[in-house]
Amino acid sequence: xxxxxxxxxxxxxxxxxxxxxxxxxxxxxxxxxxxxxxxxxxxxxxxxxxxxxxxxxxxxxxxxxxxxxxxxxxxxxxxxxxxxxxxxxxxxxxxxxxxxxxxxxxxxxxxxxxxxxxxxxxxxxxxxxxxxxxxxxxxxxxxxxxxxxxxxxxxxxxxxxxxxxxxxxxxxxxxxxxxxxxxxxxxxxxxxxxxxxxxxxxxxxxxxxxxxxxxxxxxxxxxxxxxxxxxxxxxxxxxxxxxxxxxxxxxxxxxxxxxxxxxxxxxxxxxxxxxxxxxxxxxxxxxxxxxxxxxxxxxxxxxxxxxxxxxxxxxxxxxxxxxxxxxxxxxxxxxxxxxxxxxxxxxxxxxxxxxxxxxxxxxxxxxxxxxxxxxxxxxxxxxxxxxxxxxxxxxxxxxxxxxxxxxxxxxxxxxxxxxxxxxxxxxxxxxxxxxxxxxxxxxxxxxxxxxxxxxxxxxxxxxxxxxxxxxxxxxxxxxxxxxxxxxxxxxxxxxxxxxxxxxxxxxxxxxxxxxxxxxxxxxxxxxxxxxxxxxxxxxxxxxxxxxxxxxxxxxxxxxxxxxxxxxxx
Length: 569
Fold this sequence. Notes:
Blueprint: H1 3-21, E1 31-35, E2 39-44, E3 51-56, E4 62-66, E5 75-79, E6 81-88, E7 91-106, E8 109-121, H2 131-149, E9 153-155, H3 165-169, H4 173-176, H5 180-183, H6 196-199, E10 212-223, E11 226-236, E12 260-268, E13 271-279, E14 286-287, E15 299-300, H7 306-321, E16 323-328, H8 337-350, E17 355-359, H9 362-365, H10 374-380, H11 382-388, E18 391-393, E19 399-401, E20 405-410, H12 416-437, H13 450-471, H14 479-484, H15 489-508, H16 510-521, H17 542-546, H18 551-559
């Protein structure tokens, strides 16, 4: 290869990396934690690095030093990142990543899943605590460990996982020079509260690792002898985060419960394409608190200013994503009907040309296991999807097309029905992308590529399970259709089992789960003198006394749900 051609290749690669990802301030890949009775030392072990983060266990002061200051008597352990710090009854705790699993490589950037953590007390003993404080501190530690035990924490020390490809392509030179923490989309930084002390000191930002919660899978695929990478990323928002029946609707800032941004990415011969969708709770002020019924009746707040929160929500969505095509999948009869009607009325009242509303009664249309009828909805929105398009950039970093808006799908939980529809819309977009990139021949159908279809369906089913476990506490329902393209009796039975587990968790353990998330995200702070601590709220023990009376009724209603068109969310 001539020097001129070599230079061209170098320039193209440089442009690709710079335009899409920025040169920024990367985090450290290799760390060692050294512990003494007085201090934590976190040593950067990357080639050429001499930085050491020092945390004083008494004063809590954070400083930057060099390796020569590490005392030889310190106890040393390898770690893979600092999640942050949190204050509990006993004082401050340092949370670090101790195990990780490689998910794959994303344009030469390694993506990891954090699989184990240590929660380390600053205090050397607990002798300063009373017996009640000791018990409270133990409970708060259990809350933190519960959140950390929920699968789905991802990170990269060199790539910004919180942004879509399209957002990363449309950034300023100043953005490119920021650290990963500074430039991250704060909606998806689940340890943002834990990093508040480190974020206040820019000189230590390389030790501050933004962590995403959600789902990521990567696959090397082949169609027609052409190899490409296919990636699926779901980013779960930390705003109005929580568990199924405890967090519904929106808050005063317009943040929707269970909001998830899902991006599907293709990388082929240097070209990159992506298609983004969102999901989120119906953006009104409503609730659905557990009351031992299988499906508690949702209640719409009759005194709240719904338009204020509704408009805040969609103003932000339009700014971030562009046009909004709402697909509302809830039942148009029974207890879900008032929510569907209220949603439609609010869209009509807002009268925005950037918002389109489509109601599709999933259970009515697909009753008696007629899931082939989902094609009615896909065909209905096909022209709109073509108008929204997708993001595409060539190997030199030139943007060929932008995605002009998103489908915002919802059901009651924004889990099972929502994931099915999202997977169908994503496949249609992928079909167009692969044809334009030359992977698929003209007239070829993606559904006919058996090997890839298996990868695709299983990945979307895994995505459904991850989102469901994080919000509802169990795997998703209806994944037999996502995995196989058919609704089966075995799938119906598994849905019954998962629904029964959801019922139990929603009624008897989700209060603890919600408190745990709120503590982790900083929605409340621990203060042993605060009488409003969640630990001081008594449980309603009548739930425990009567729960067994409902089991037979629940099992019966679940196993026959699809036959009469009434189903769980």
